[in-house]
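General statements about sequence and structure are easier to judge against a single worked case. For one protein, we set the task of working out the structure tokens from the amino acid sequence alone. This step matters because it turns folding into a mapping between discrete strings. The amino acid sequence and the backbone structure tokens for this protein are reproduced below.
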Amino acid sequence: MTFEKLRFEREGRVALITLNRPEAQNAIDRALNAELHTVWEQFARDDGLDVAVLTGAGRAFCAGADLADYIPQFLDGDMLAVRANVPTGLGGITRGQHRLAKPVIGAVNGWALAGGFELALACDIRLAAEGAKFGSYEIHRGFHHGDGGIVRMVQSIGVARTMDIVLTGRDVTAAEALSMGLVSHVVAAEMLLPTAMELAGRIASKSQVAIRSAKETILEVAGRTLDDALRLEALYGYSSGDVREVKRQLEKFFAKSGMGKT
């Protein structure tokens, strides 16, 4: 895959996708947005890839939507332009391609602002470099998140913390993001990509039938009532197994433990 504004690399069954507009802090213009939609489509279809790692070139992960190129199409447009945007969203996986079955790991190497914060939130697992920062900067420009930022923050950290971050537009450090559950790991900058790629490889080594069913289940049960969530977990969990893999793992377990099959 060849792109102008992002880099695509393969390492085994892992795709490394790098936003590559460092001169613009990897802000998403219309061209980069189109390339992101394309790369997620191709990643989804590629049977040789199981996990993606998303990061940014240079000092930033992503500074959000390009204010000079992406945003004016809606300011100067009409309601039909807004309506046409609803099925697609910024960066693909924020909305429209958010049902991607394969896991995506966000390696947040620097600033993740506004739409860049939303893009990070759309990743299934987030790691951050020690110097990374997050911010809902839209409020400084007279609007607010429209590509999943509020929805995913409410699901991840609750209403009160979402209110604090969105209404103030303040910076959130990597350490604070870790403390509130916005990211899973914070590592030294030089260890960010090695850690993300190692994690991706670990996921890719598992049964992908089970991995994709687990991701689907987690997304489906979020926000549901307890009874609905338990029913869906049972339905997906007991129908998710790769039978040959389950048998192989059970045989290994019994052989290692010395227990007989009962």
